[in-house]
Amino acid sequence: MGITLDWIHQNTRNLLDGLNTAVFVFDNDLRLVYINAAGEMLMDNSASHCIGLDIDGLVVDSDYMQKHLRQALQTGQPYMQRGCRLQPNGRDTVTVDCTGIPLYLDGEIQGLLVEMLQVDRQLRINLETHLLDQQQATRSLVRGLAHEIKNPLGGLRGAAQLLEQEITDEYLKEYTRIIIGEADRLQNLVNRMLGPNNVPRMRSVNIHEVLAHVCSLVQAENLPGLVMKQDYDPSIPELWADRDLLVQAVLNIVRNAVQALQGKGLVYLRTRTLRQYTIGNQRYRHVVKVEILDNGPGIPKEMLKQIFLPMITTSPEGTGLGLSIAQSILNQHKGLIECQSEPGNTKFTLLLPLESEHE
Description:
44% of the residues lie in helices and 27% in strands. The protein is α+β, with helices and mostly antiparallel strands. It folds into three domains: 5-118, PAS domain (Beta-Lactamase), CATH 3.30.450; 123-194; 203-353, Heat Shock Protein 90 (2-Layer Sandwich), CATH 3.30.565. A five-stranded antiparallel sheet has the order 2-1-5-4-3. It has a five-stranded mixed sheet with strand order 7-9-10-12-11, with helices on both faces. The mean pLDDT is 82.
């Protein structure tokens, strides 16, 4: 039996939750009575927290939008605005195309259906796709270089060891030891550039336990000028991941933040869930978002597009491998790391699908 009109009526809520467009229903007082999954994602808040709020409670500086929505209620004419800059309470400004359509009951206007299509969403998806392609290309290039370097490096080290056995002068042996030591250092550098090569050992992992462990490691370094704050969503379920690899990825990012702060400043960790979210070209029902923020000097704009490449660093003491390895680990978990930065506000966002072993 195929889909029928009755089935559509009975499953309207499920159909609306499957849309990429954010859908809001307001009553005549512009109080929210319904929000779909895409709307929750746009507001960065759950329906239980949003329903019952008026426009002022949902959006910062809502006077302009409120004026036009009330006009639509009074005149019965739809309201449309393209490229509307909107700042939901508690999150960054987004750009949306907004449409308000009066809802009639018994011939009278009883509310308003508002659709918001986030037009910068496609830009984000394109950027994520570019990051994933860039990471894959970089990994392939590094693997090729590693193969070309490792073979002669092994021969060089072996020859130095044989030469050391033939030399009786301890002074000359010091030179062969330097050759062996430098060969080992290069071997370790190549291995680090390749990142984790082992297959992730996936199991049920609590993301907050991972973050707490990283915080304890950093705080054990006794940096009196460092402040670490956490804001966790306790409703986030466990995800299917390799705990040790996630610890390494998060630790790399947090340590980068601490280095940028030179041990004095704020590192802020925050978790949220996203529904019907796209990572690259793949859409997931639920995604966990981990944000790592610091109030350091920021990352130069010209470096933002390159920070996940190996050997790219703003620190004279850094190797430029930490972020590349972290991105590789997230990719192994079908996830991604994004970065936004300006002086006083740098934010790394880790996106991880909330999938179980059987999904």
